Amino acid sequence: MKLKLIIPFLVVILASVGCISVSSVSAATPPTYGSVILDGKPLGFDAKPIIINGNTMVPFRKIFESLNMNVHWDSKTKNITAKNTGVTIQMTLDTLKATVNDKEFTLTQTPFNTPEGTVYVNLRFISQAVGATISWDNTKKIATINTK
After folding, report:
1. pTM flag (> 0.70)
2. What residues contact residue 82 under an 8 Å CB cut-off, 6+ apart?
3. How far apart are CA 113 and CA 92, in angstroms?
4. Side-chain half-sphere of 148: how many Cα atoms within 13 Å?
5. At 139, is the secondary structure helix, strand, or coil?
């Protein structure tokens, strides 16, 4: 008889423990920040590079200008255009499509705007689009770009 009373009690306890562990897993994880080295020199950003879903995202204007590109931001269409001799990159916020010299590519992470007003783009995509090589040190969270 006591066993019949204990079993429902144990079920309630086990169910409660399960709910607690599930809710702790769904808590927001803190952002992971990285850094960038361009041609052997650390590249300083006003807003930190952030790693999202395995993609290093960086403020767009600083990376494009550091790669000697002219940048145009259209706040109405949310379109970014960056140009230098031979390369034109076009991207739109919150869109997985981008073009390089009118050839369409699918991005692994959309460009986005933070609540503070910083527009971020995918560092690897931008680096490869301009013909640079890029490597990643996952332990130190450092992206190294070589344009030479």
Report:
1. yes
2. 60, 64, 69, 70, 71, 72, 88, 89, 126
3. 11
4. 3
5. coil
Residue with structure tokens 């403020």? 59
Q: What is the number of helices (H) and of strands (E) in the chain?
A: 3, 14
Report the C-alpha gap between 41 and 21 in whole angstroms.
44
User: What single string gives the DSSP state of each residue in 15-83?
Assistant: HHHHHHHHHHHTSPPPPEE-EEEETTEEE--SS--EEETTEEEEEHHHHHHHTT-EEEEETTTTEEEEE
Q: Tens-of-pLDDT digits for all 148 residues of the chain?
A: 554 555 544 444 444 444 443 333 445 678 899 999 999 999 999 999 999 999 999 999 999 999 999 999 999 999 999 999 899 999 999 999 999 999 999 999 999 999 999 999 999 999 999 999 999 999 999 999 999 8
DSSP 8-state secondary structure symbol assigned to residue 110: -
Do 130 and 69 meet the contact criterion of CB atoms below 8 Å apart?
A: yes
What are the tokens at 41?
């020199």
